Amino acid sequence: xxxVQEIQCQYQSDIVVDKVSFHVNDGDICSLLxxxxxxxxxxxxxxxxxxxxxxxxxxxRDHCLSQPGKLVGPEQRNIGMVFQDYALFPHLSxxxxxxxxxxxxxxxxxxxxVKRLLELVRLEGIAHRxxxxxxxxxxxxxxxxxxLAPSPDLLLLDEPFSNLxxxxxxxxxxxxxxxxxxxxxxxxxxxxxxxxxxxxxDQIGLLHGGKLQQWDxxxxxxxxxxxxxxxxxxxxxxxxxxxxxxxxxxVTTEFGTLMGNRAYHWPPGTPVExxxxxxxxxxxxxxxxxxxxxxxxxxxxxTLYTLSLPTGSRVEALLPSHRNYAINETVQINTExxxxxxxxxxxxxxxxx
Length: 353
Ligand SMILES: Nc1ncnc2c1ncn2[C@@H]1O[C@H](COP(=O)(O)OP(=O)(O)OP(=O)(O)O)[C@@H](O)[C@H]1O
Prior knowledge:
single chain; alpha+beta; Rossmann fold; six-stranded mixed beta sheet; Transp-assoc_OB_typ2; ABC_SmlMolc_Importer
């Protein structure tokens, strides 16, 4: 439905989006995720038609909307936008803000669409209120209804939940996802919050320094990061040194020889580092190694421990919080990692350069 082909965007001579490609299918909900300044909003603006391209193309339903020298105007794209600051008209009621998105239809059509949209975003009871009489969550629902009113092909959401408190943010993002799925409207969300991206999206694009590092389903981004940058940005975890074992799917580490679910392409003896997520470390009654608690962060049902191994390497472990280990206490641990991701030391050095 949407094809973003090798797009490049520049501010003066600075390339801030560098040959980024991805596509969005009908009904897919996607996120662009990455640290501040990595180019997320610029990509969204390029898709919306506010940002010209210096290379590549944006194609929506087989129509080229942008390429160098060509920029179809934002109002001609049938793409909706929802912003962080809601951008509601303060002098218009909820009903009239939504009606604004329908101004090309006759009055009868407008009335029935407004009624349907008010029901959809659950604001029927407060249709006559003005934006200053609404909570942040309600204002964002009005903004969503207004953007959905003209039945866009695609909805772009630029950090729409970031002004809301954590609980409301979680709830509203799931509500919005349900609404989009019900209407089968494709959407792209820009966020720097990975939990939000995980919960909201079918596909996520991770950006860093203007380059797309990986476009994938949330599970793969976490368990199968394609490079060190992705592994560092997504989730928690530590890198543990090891060497490729005599079998191509094994890595020998301080925990002994671990078996991965793939054959590694390096020869036996190659020094590598493996990514261990906190949920890859488990308590062990028999075997395993003795580790010392050096840090702990309580988060309710679980506690994230930083543990020091006998060689001085560190791993993180997410353990149920009913067992409360003290700093300097020792615990017996082992690994249970199905997705054993290894990076060669060379890749690691490149990633940290
Ligand atoms: N109008 C502008 N003129 C010059 N540089 C800009 C302009 N807008 C953005 N930039 C730069 O382009 C880069 C990408 O910005 P962009 O807003 O796309 O990042 P982002 O990933 O959305 O960041 P954030 O999460 O902080 O909003 C940044 O280095 C930013 O400073």
